[in-house]
Design a protein that fits this description.
Chain lengths: 269, 491
């Protein structure tokens, strides 16, 4: 959340580190490291794009034709990349932690239709791919004598691929008709009010952690409002936020990793 | 005559016709009457296209087809139609009084996990959470599906999915349960399990069951009432055909004794992924030209995998499949919809015209032979399951292939169509073609096939002529009574 609010290098660096740590503790160090594969190039690309697009700034690195490439612009690009990557990493941790059941419980009561759309899309995506492969394989299985053979130039391949996609669409819609009949037969759309089956329990430990999080968020909010927001990229890099802001933010980010560490300690063999 | 309140289902002179685009009427049902007491098990029989589905759909308000109607219907104690005019019923009431299970096991499932699927109907009605939990627990316990609760619905087999569908409908506690050919797509073992559960539901819970099927011999032990919507084939014992079958088998065996081998499978090893166990382990098989060779075996024994390896769709990790040089082949997949790429039946058959060199008259011949001539302008998906099977077969037969590989060719076919198929296959092999088929339907295999190979434990357990194979089996035999025998006796 704070990753998006504060365009501060310190904040962003911490946010990125925090997101990586969270992902590592939730899904394993390997996934976190693997995600670096796209995080780093993303930041670098954004940095270069920004450097080429924006020409304000004091310290000039080099000249590209008559456009100066400035350090400030590069930094801004890097920071934007870092911001985007950290937000995406946080979302990745979210999907790992909360499965479809939990999402349903969160949003089911208020947005049943959208929820349904999302859950159906996720379910049927892999089914579509399997079917597509099957259709292609079956088309090849019926053939003339081997010596005759069929010509497989690019155009006919593309045409058959398009055809397979249209068949998949038709088939999917046909299934959709059956599914909607099954839903209507079981009362879908009967009442506006929807209840959910799964019950989630808020225990004391959960409440304590929630309390700590609230406090940290509050502290950070105050610090951000007073001193952290006024970072200037152009014309010169200036306005770094004071170090205690960093400490508070760091504390907030460490919470998920700390929870996991405590769990690992409790379950140690 | 019992009044509306005491009969579970009451239908009086119900007629239904579709209205075509030009205004003319296409009659489907004519003056159908039915009266069922609570707790009855009624089976609706009739050949394909006689209106079984239409009748059942008319009994469920949300799914009722639109057309010209007359007569009256009452179900679950409430009138649904009086003198041809539909009476509005709240969706909540309908969901909790009349339950409906459709034919396709996979397409009916809405949710990700089994638990969510069972709770789906209850959630729709806004039931309080305690009530919901209690009902789901009850239904799961009744069907014994507690171990499956957290499984993803995609992982289940067809039979298991259909049981989940039944359980999900029963969680709503309907008084009347309507089922439209629920076992048409299931193998015999899954069918038996499903029908067992259904009969338990009927007897122990006292729910009135109305089920449409094209194989009434499967439900014979449970049925208390019967509705015939058209001519049905007679169920005949196998012994009546015995002498005829034996004679034909002898003739056939002499015919292909010296034929060369069309397909040779040597030491075949197949598995889908590196970490998975072998699906086929050292399979050796040889199939003679001009024979109908059947592959049988239980669920997951690798029959379809072997057929696909012979077709060349699957690459074997070890071993080889050798076919006669210059052999043209045709493959019928388990789901015939996989073959359909066009928008109308006629276009579908014309698709490979230039590629295989047949002409329009051939297409028309096969259309009329399979009884699909009147459906030529329909979309393939608008046909019933059995008709789609026939269309797929017609498409493959038009190619004039020498080697036919058919996966469950008799699935969804009623007795008449099945008997036709047997005759057709026999004609094809006398012309010199080779047919390899995979089937669960032992009645069909015992009548049609020349040789049978049984797959067990990822290997071919034995390959024998049909006569020898079924003579020595005690459990794995064709049913004693079947409509198929009745139809064949007529031919």
């Amino acid at each position: 959340m704070f990753s998006m609010l504060a365009m501060q290098p310190g904040y962003l660096a911490l946010s990125l580190a925090g997101a990586l740590m969270c992902l590592a503790s939730v899904d394993g160090a390997r996934t976190a490291l693997r995600s670096l594969i796209w995080v780093l190039p993303l930041s670098v690309v954004l940095a270069f794009v920004n450097a080429l697009a924006v020409t304000t700034g004091e310290t000039v690195l080099c000249w590209l034709g008559n456009r100066p490439v400035t350090v400030e612009a590069l930094c801004f690009g890097l920071c934007s990349g870092a911001m985007l990557s950290s937000v995406l990493l946080w979302f990745k941790s979210y999907t790992v932690c909360l499965d479809s059941n939990a999402s349903l419980a969160l949003f089911g009561k208020s947005l049943p239709t959208i929820n349904l759309m999302i859950s159906q899309t996720m379910r049927l995506f892999s089914q579509f791919i399997k079917r597509g492969k099957e259709i292609a394989a079956v088309q090849l299985a019926t053939h003339k004598a081997v010596s005759g053979g069929t010509s497989f130039d690019v155009r006919s391949k593309a045409k058959s691929a398009l055809r397979i996609v249209s068949v998949l669409m038709g088939w999917g819609m046909e299934d959709g008709l059956i599914r909607s009949a099954s839903m209507r037969a079981r009362g879908y759309g009967a009442t506006k009010r929807h209840t959910t089956y799964v019950r989630y329990h808020l225990g004391t430990a959960d409440k304590v952690v929630l309390g700590i999080l609230m406090v940290l968020v509050g502290v950070n909010g105050v610090l951000l409002a007073t001193g952290g927001g006024a970072f200037e990229f152009y014309p010169v890099l200036s306005g770094f936020a004071p170090w205690h802001n960093m400490v508070a933010y760091g504390a907030l980010l460490i919470v998920p990793a700390a929870l996991k560490a405590r769990e690992a300690w409790v379950w140690r063999t | 005559m019992a009044n509306v309140n005491s009969a579970a289902v009451q239908v009086n002179n119900y007629s239904f016709s579709y209205q075509r685009a030009d205004g003319s009427l296409q009659p489907v049902l004519q003056n159908v009457s039915l009266e069922l007491e609570p707790g009855a098990f009624c089976v609706v029989v009739g050949a394909t296209g006689c209106g079984k589905s239409t009748f059942l759909l008319s009994l469920k308000p949300e799914l009722a087809p639109s057309g010209v109607t007359s007569g009256s219907i009452a179900a679950g104690g409430t009138a649904l139609m009086r003198e041809g005019v539909r009476i509005a019923v709240s969706q909540e009431f309908s969901a909790q009084t009349i339950g409906f299970v459709l034919q396709d096991p996979a397409a009916q499932i809405v949710c990700d996990t089994v638990l969510q699927e069972l709770a789906f109907g209850l959630e729709n009605l806004g039931m309080p959470q305690n009530e919901m939990r209690r009902r789901v627990a009850e239904v799961a316990h009744f069907f014994g599906i507690e171990p499956w609760i957290h499984l993803s619905c995609e992982e289940l087999s067809g039979g298991q999915k259909q049981i989940i569908n039944l359980a999900a409908v029963l969680a709503l506690r309907p008084q009347v349960l309507l089922l439209d050919e629920p076992t048409a797509q299931l193998d015999p073992y899954a069918t038996r399990q499903f029908l067992n559960m259904l009969s338990q539901v009927n007897r122990e819970l006292g729910i009135t069951v109305v089920m449409a099927t094209h194989k009434p011999e499967e439900v014979e032990p449970y049925v208390t009432a019967r509705l015939e919507l058209g001519e049905t084939a007679e169920i005949v014992e196998r012994d009546a055909l015995q002498s005829e079958l034996a004679r034909r088998k002898c003739e056939r065996e002499n015919a292909f004794l010296d034929n060369p081998h069309a397909v040779g499978v040597h030491n075949l090893y197949v598995r889908y992924e590196r970490e998975q166990p072998w699906v086929l382990r050292g399979v050796n098989l040889s199939i003679q030209q001009g024979t109908i060779h059947a592959l049988v075996g239980g669920n997951g024994s690798g029959k379809t995998t072997l057929l696909r390896a012979v077709a060349g769709i699957l690459k074997a990790q070890r071993g080889s499949v050798r076919k006669i040089q210059d052999c043209s082949q045709a493959y019928l997949p388990q789901d015939p919809k996989t073959l359909f790429v066009c928008d109308t039946v006629a276009e579908e058959l014309a698709e490979w015209r230039t590629l295989y060199g047949y002409d329009k008259s051939d297409e028309e011949f096969w259309l009329s032979r399979f009884g699909l001539a009147e459906y030529a302008e329909l979309h393939p998906y608008d046909l019933s399951g059995g008709q789609q099977q026939k269309l797929a077969l017609a498409k493959l037969l038009l190619t004039g292939a020498e080697l036919l590989l058919l996966d469950e060719p008799s699935k969804g076919l009623d007795a008449d169509a099945c008997a036709e198929l047997v005759q057709l296959l026999q004609e094809l092999v006398t012309e010199g073609k080779t047919v390899v088929l995979v089937s669960h339907d032992l009645a069909f295999v015992s009548v049609a096939a020349d040789k049978v190979s049984m797959l067990f434990d990822s290997e071919i357990a034995c390959t024998e002529s049909t006569r020898d194979f079924f003579a020595h089996n005690v459990v794995y035999r064709p049913p004693v009574r079947s409509q198929l025998y009745g139809m064949l006796r007529q031919k």
